[in-house]
Amino acid sequence: NAGVTQTPKFRVLKTGQSMTLLCAQDMNHEYMYWYRQDPGMGLRLIHYSVGEGTTAKGEVPDGYNVSRLKKQNFLLGLESAAPSQTSVYFCATAEQGRNQPQHFGDGTRLSIL
Amino acid sequence: AQSVTQPDIHITVSEGASLELRCNYSYGATPYLFWYVQSPGQGLQLLLKYFSGDTLVQGIKGFEAEFKRSQSSFNLRKPSVHWSDAAEYFCAVGAVAGYALNFGKGTSLLVTP
Questions:
Q1: What is the chain A residue with the closest CA to B1?
Q2: Do the chains contact at B43 and A40, CB–CB below 8 Å?
């Protein structure tokens, strides 16, 4: 039982390049989230999805796009990477309900040169 | 908007000593509160959660937290710290939109012999 799997685990990009981060879950959760973690900032919500085919903006959505074509996958895209997007990205999933805990992947460490 | 503050960026305790990590929340109604732990290079793991009922909640790994509405606090405690408890600890409050989490900036725990 893999839970929440993020690929890739590490990536180095040049400014202006594009890439997609994949989050895959096998827990059949409706809700999925993308956060970024920066030193001294905690985790900040980028985008989230409350079900297949739906997405919504979080606190820091600029420069990112997302898609949820299948319930089990949540993709985070960087169209034109910038050094300010150097961060550790975490995907999380949860069942519906405000009292439900979120389950996190191990993160993707992304460096933009 | 719901938010949490973790006043201590770093805390150092001796192995076997007691631990208290502070968390203050800002929210008008009854908050949904969580504590997560993050070991180096790992994702976040849920320690415990609170949304109603007994204000003293028990979690995994011997941790507990007490909800105090009068002080807007949800402090995490452990009677005797083990070296393996060294990690980053995050307090979070559940948001209404998408049931996302608003995280504090974290407290880094160092355990000395």
A1: A59
A2: no
Query: What pLDDT does residue B51 have?
Result: 87
Q: What share of chain A is helix, strand, coil (3-state, %, to 5)?
A: 5, 50, 45
The fraction of chain B above a pLDDT of 90, given in percent, is: 79
Inform me whether the pLDDT recorded for A54 exceeds 70: yes
Question: Which option is the CATH number for B3-112: 3.40.190.10, 2.60.40.10, 1.10.540.10, 1.20.120.1760?
Answer: 2.60.40.10
- The partner residues of B10 in beta bridges, in order of sequence, read B108
- The CATH number linked to A66 is 2.60.40.10
Do B51 and A98 count as a contact with CB atoms less than 8 A apart?
Answer: yes
* Facing B98 at nearest CB: one of A40, A43, A56: A56
Q: Tell me which residue range forms the domain holding A97.
A: 4-112
pLDDT higher than threshold 80 for residue B29 = no
pLDDT band at residue B41 under the 50/70/90 scheme: confident
Distance CA A104, CA B90 (A): 13
pLDDT of residue B98: 79
- Domain extents for chain B? 3-112
In order of A32, B56, B84, the CA distances from A85 in angstroms are 20, 39, 32
The shortest CB-CB distance from A42 to any of B34, B98, B105 is to: B105
Res A2 pLDDT > 80 = no
